[in-house]
User: Fold this.
Amino acid sequence: DFLFFWGAVFLVTTTLVAFFKKENQELIPAKEETKGITDTYRLLFSIIKMPAVLTFCLLILTSKVGFSAADAVTGLKLVEEGVPKEHLALLAVPMVPLQIILPLIISKYTAGPQPLNTFYKAMPFRLLLGLEFAFLVWWAPKVKHEGGFPVYYYAVVVLSYALHQITLYSMYVAIMAFNAKVSDPLIGGTYMTLLNTVSNLGGNWPSTVALWLVDPLTVKECAGARGHSCATAAAAEV
Assistant:
């Protein structure tokens, strides 16, 4: 119901904007970036052919592979170990003010001539947090009791998520600052959109692969069923 309501609001408001919003002709620059869809794609192709842009795209497409499993699978594994989904959802609430404040703080360090320095410094800490997340999943069944999980376990989870948000936003703000810095002002919109799209793709495809690999890489043992393997989802169901 929630998604349906806001989906309807989104459709209605954007349709109203399309019909009733008029451009101010006096403020439109004489020379536009592009004149149509074909020109836009031709421009994108000419940008991505540049050696520096091509190398940078390859780097940001692969830079997030190291923490894709920790980002995508940790929450699911905690639920699998018995942590209630509603408790995990509540743990996200303290992260909201942190997510608002972090970009304001980090932007001070990414405003200089080398914004990617923040990206480089945050990466090893984010990789180490992947190991810490694995520890949280391993630790969950050890501390679980009949009433659920102790308060100190949730405190450690919140602290871990907070540290993760610091590293995540340090990398995110740094890459956005770098994209804004290197984009040609004459074609800034197209240039930045290309780099940000590649950056987003670099975060999404490793998470998809990580989720796909969960079942093949999970070791399972069958209890009370000799000669049967639980390696696949179908076999485990049997």
The chain has one domain: 43-212. The CA atoms of residues 75 and 88 lie 8 Å apart.
